[in-house]
Structure formats: structure tokens, C-alpha cells
Write a structure and sequence with these properties.
The protein is mainly alpha-helical. The protein is built from four helices and no strands. The longest helix is centred in the N-terminal third of the chain and has 70 residues, at 2-71. The protein is rod-shaped.
Amino acid sequence: MNDSLKKDINASKEDFQNYLDARFDMIRLNMAENFSKLIAGFTIKLTILFAFSFVMLFLSLAFAAWINNVIDIPGIGYIILAGIYVFFIFIFWLLRHRIVERPIIQSMIEMFFPPDHNFESNEK
């Protein structure tokens, strides 16, 4: 009887160790998936931002040159455009928490805690 109990305990211990190993592997895979999604999303957004920056650069130069031709004062178009950009930077600075920080925090929370793994649904 004593040997049977030891065998059962050893088998339970081995099963528990296998469970812990499987759970650890699942956590590592989940972290790797989330990290990969983070890097892929960052790369895509950085590429789009890079392309958008070039488009905005050339549109800005064209707009400033057009303003110079309309007003017929050399360089005034660049000054006006710089003033417009300073205004937009100021507005962006005032709204940075609402339009940058909150969406980033929310997307990170959704990425690492997807809705299908919601804590509330586990409690019911």
C-alpha cells in the first residue's frame, strides 16, 4: 500500500510538473505573439509615417511657393506656412494626452489583454 501511494504521488508530481511546463510554454508563446504584433504594428506605422512625411514635405514646399507667387513677396509663403505649422504644433501639444497617450495605452491594454480573455467573463 505504501509503494502504491508513493507511485501515485510521484505520478501526480510528474503530471503537475508537465502542466507547469506546458503553462510556461503557453505564456512564452503568448508573449512572443504579442511582442511580434507590437513590432509589426510599429514597423507598419513607422513606414506610413515616413511616406506621409515626404508627401507633406513636397506639398508644403509647393504650397509655400504658391503663396510666394500669389502675394508676390519672396519668402513670405515659407514664413506663413511655418506659422501655420507652429499653430498646429501648439494645438497638438495641448491635446497630446487625448490624441496620443490614451489611444496608445488603450491599444496596448487590448493587445496584451484581448477581449476574449476578459477577467469579468471568467468570474461569472
